């Protein structure tokens, strides 16, 4: 552990179920956890941030069968999609666990066997109502209108030999733990729900094995059974750290367990605050310090669902608004204990009002005034005024306020504190009228002080924003030309370096969006996507029209090397590449930025359509096209394995 660390901090998300592409409601959790992890690092903690994928179960076995592939091939594909989604959102996880990892599977078998041998697990027969999507058994009395109480879908009667975990044995001990550790379950309302609705009425023993499907971890002493989801999935939080049933724990387990907080959705709170603690009690291991059941992100007033056709996906939002705008929205708009709402209209409104106006306009006009009146050079003559004290006191207080909110996991409220400071900066400009001071030579020192106070307050906000909007934070600090970027630099006001020169031409952080034009564009894009999807279905059935060799020879394909690549200035999904074709260097614009970072494609040997008519894509000329392979969920660049000379023809 580093000398300056405050201590260890282990934080996890729930692991994502690999049944399909995650929507923004699923993605919210990793962004929320990332914000907390980044903030703890900024405070000086040694953070271990884990996420991953839950990859076993009947639903996956069925989906793989429908797709005509093995379950392992299916989960490999979806796990890749999940990880790319998390990477796209600029999340800083330290470890990505998969429940198909060899070490995890071996430890799950050992956990199951240990619990069986000590009498906590026994074999019996289950008769009840089973929900396949939730992979949960229910009694008739637990059903709501005859359907699953968790997801509202139909259930079917099932009779099956199974192993059961004796939960009631540990129930009194768990109730005592929850009541003597009021911080264990958050928010408070969730704690009362677990105690009053589940623990005090009496727990039913938990079904922990299945025989009706095979895609799971085999019970090694009874191979007709596979370990049922909860022992498998929940134990990832310790197996990934190197937990060993025999006591030969890895260094990470010794260092980081117990977890400081599990961040999970409110719909799986019961599993994490009842089943998981009891499992740990049975294993003789410490319990996590806290479980936070976050609310849902709804579309309008309904739960987001692919089956309902109302799902909004993170990559769609990033395409239109950029990563940091999406991060800001989902973090800011989700209340601590109630469900949040996302719509396209509301997203546009927040970009315009909060990001473009309050934040972006403040930074741009302050730096522009510094350039206009002082050629960008920062100074602070300290020509004070009572107005200054109020702004300075608020900037200093904001650090404490944000710390307090983050300690309570009230992330949206922490962001509100930062934007309160930004709004006060805008008011300070109106109060001090720098444009008036700039007309009077005798007021130059006062003007310099006013601008310094603004620039320093903006620096405070930018440093605090790093956890929530990391790219935007970096851009602001770059425009200020400051090296004072850590949280320690916020201990006293006035750390912004005098004598430095701010950026000469500050870039626009967030462009205002015309709501009407945006909705028209969105509708047109949706119609285009629907048409393309329909065409794909037709193509699947009919196949493409046959061509002759003469048609093929019209296309000129050449080998080229990507020399450089950068993001398109006006389109998040486009990369602008310079490609060496042997006798010339071509500029080509490709729609691959959602899959590849610029640095990941530099040096690749690619196949270029070299006789394609040049076109302008969002204002940048493209002189050809690189070949890519893609399906509905993934994309890769067609590359040349051998070191063929650039310009070599492909035929």
UniProtKB/TrEMBL annotation:
GO biological process terms on file: methionyl-tRNA aminoacylation
- How is its cofactor bound, per UniProt? Binds 1 zinc ion per subunit.
Q: Which Pfam families match?
A: Anticodon_3 (PF19303), tRNA-synt_1g (PF09334), tRNA_bind (PF01588)
State where the protein is found. Answer: Cytoplasm
Q: What is its EC number?
A: 6.1.1.10
UniProt short sequence motif 'KMSKS' region, positions renumbered to this chain: 303-307
Residue limits of the TRNA-binding domain? 551-651
Q: Where is this motif: 'HIGH' region?
A: 16-26
Kindly state which reaction or reactions the protein catalyses: tRNA(Met) + L-methionine + ATP = L-methionyl-tRNA(Met) + AMP + diphosphate
Which Gene3D superfamilies does the record associate with it?
A: 2.170.220.10, HUPs, Isoleucyl-tRNA Synthetase, Domain 1, Nucleic acid-binding proteins
Give the EC class as a word: ligase
Q: Residues that bind Zn(2+), according to the entry?
A: 131, 134, 148, 151
Its required cofactor(s), as named, are: Zn(2+)
User: Which SUPFAM superfamilies has this protein been placed in?
Assistant: Anticodon-binding domain of a subclass of class I aminoacyl-tRNA synthetases (SSF47323), Nucleic acid-binding proteins (SSF50249), Nucleotidylyl transferase (SSF52374)
Give the keywords, sorted: Aminoacyl-tRNA synthetase, ATP-binding, Cytoplasm, Ligase, Metal-binding, Nucleotide-binding, Protein biosynthesis, RNA-binding, tRNA-binding, Zinc
Indicate yes or no for the key word ATP-binding: yes
Show the GO MF annotations: ATP binding; metal ion binding; methionine-tRNA ligase activity; tRNA binding
GO cellular component annotations, sorted alphabetically? cytoplasm
- Summarize the subunit comment: Homodimer.
- Role description: Is required not only for elongation of protein synthesis but also for the initiation of all mRNA translation through initiator tRNA(fMet) aminoacylation.
UniProt record similarity statement: Belongs to the class-I aminoacyl-tRNA synthetase family. MetG type 2A subfamily.
Q: What is this protein called?
A: Methionine--tRNA ligase
Question: From which organism does this entry originate?
Answer: Amedibacillus dolichus DSM 3991
| Gene this chain is encoded by | metG
């Amino acid at each position: 552990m580093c000398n300056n660390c405050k201590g260890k901090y282990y934080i996890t998300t729930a692991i994502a179920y690999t049944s399909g592409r995650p929507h923004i409601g699923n993605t919210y959790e990793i962004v929320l956890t990332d914000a907390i992890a980044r903030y703890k690092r900024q405070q000086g903690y040694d953070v271990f941030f884990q996420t991953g994928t839950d990859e076993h179960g009947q639903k996956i076995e069925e989906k793989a069968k429908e797709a005509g592939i093995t379950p392992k091939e299916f989960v490999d594909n979806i796990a890749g999609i999940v990880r790319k989604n998390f990477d796209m959102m600029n999340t800083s996880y330290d470890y990505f666990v998969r429940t198909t990892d060899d070490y995890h599977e071996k430890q799950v078998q050992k956990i199951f066997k240990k619990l069986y041998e000590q009498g906590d697990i026994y074999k019996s027969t289950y008769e009840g109502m089973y929900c396949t999507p939730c992979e949960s058994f229910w009694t008739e009395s637990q059903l709501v209108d005859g359907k699953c109480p968790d997801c509202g879908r139909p259930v079917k009667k099932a009779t099956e030999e199974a192993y059961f975990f004796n939960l009631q044995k540990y129930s009194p001990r768990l109730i005592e733990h929850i009541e003597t550790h009021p911080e264990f379950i958050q928010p408070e309302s969730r704690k009362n729900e677990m105690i009053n609705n589940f623990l005090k009425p009496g727990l039913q023993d938990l079904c922990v094995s299945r025989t009706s499907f095979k895609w799971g971890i085999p019970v090694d002493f009874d191979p007709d059974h596979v370990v049922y989801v909860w022992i498998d999935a929940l134990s990832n939080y310790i197996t990934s750290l190197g937990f060993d049933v025999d006591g030969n724990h890895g260094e990470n387990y010794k260092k980081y367990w117990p977890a400081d907080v599990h961040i999970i959705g409110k719909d799986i709170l019961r599993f994490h605050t009842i089943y998981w603690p009891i499992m740990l009690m049975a294993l003789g291991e410490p319990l996590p310090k806290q479980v936070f059941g976050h609310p849902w992100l709804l579309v309008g007033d309904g739960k987001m669902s692919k089956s309902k056709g109302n799902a909004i996906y993170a990559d769609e939002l990033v395409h239109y608004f950029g990563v940091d705008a999406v991060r800001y929205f989902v973090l800011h708009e989700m209340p601590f204990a109630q469900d949040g709402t996302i719509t396209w209209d509301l997203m546009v409104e927040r970009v315009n009002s909060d990001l473009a106006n309050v934040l972006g306009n403040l930074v741009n006009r302050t730096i522009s005034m510094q350039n206009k009146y002082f050629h960008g050079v920062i100074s602070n003559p300290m020509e004070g005024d009572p107005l200054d004290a109020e702004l300075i006191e608020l900037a200093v207080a904001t650090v404490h306020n944000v710390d307090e909110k983050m300690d309570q996991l009230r992330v949206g409220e922490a962001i509100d504190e930062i934007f309160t400071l930004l709004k006060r900066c805008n008011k300070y400009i109106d109060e001090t009228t720098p444009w008036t001071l700039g007309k009077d030579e005798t007021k130059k020192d006062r003007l310099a002080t006013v601008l310094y106070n603004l620039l320093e307050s903006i620096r405070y906000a930018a440093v605090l924003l790093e956890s929530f909007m990391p790219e935007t934070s970096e851009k602001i600090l770059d425009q200020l030309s400051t090296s004072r970027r850590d949280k320690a630099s916020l201990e006293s006001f006035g750390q912004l370096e005098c004598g430095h020169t701010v950026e000469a031409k500050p870039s626009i952080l967030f462009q205002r969006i015309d709501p009407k034009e945006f909705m028209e564009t969105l509708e047109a894009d949706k119609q285009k996507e629907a048409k393309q999807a329909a065409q794909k279905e037709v193509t699947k059935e009919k196949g493409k029209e046959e061509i002759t060799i003469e048609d093929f020879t019209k296309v000129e394909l050449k080998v080229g090397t990507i020399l450089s690549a950068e993001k398109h200035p006006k389109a998040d999904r486009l990369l602008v590449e310079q490609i060496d074709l042997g006798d010339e260097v071509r500029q080509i614009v490709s729609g691959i930025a959602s899959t590849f970072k610029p640095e990941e494609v530099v040096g690749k040997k690619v196949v270029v359509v070299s006789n394609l008519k040049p076109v302008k894509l969002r204002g940048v000329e493209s002189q050809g096209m690189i070949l890519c392979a893609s399906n509905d969920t993934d994309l890769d660049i067609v590359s040349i394995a051998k070191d063929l000379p650039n310009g070599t023809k492909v035929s």
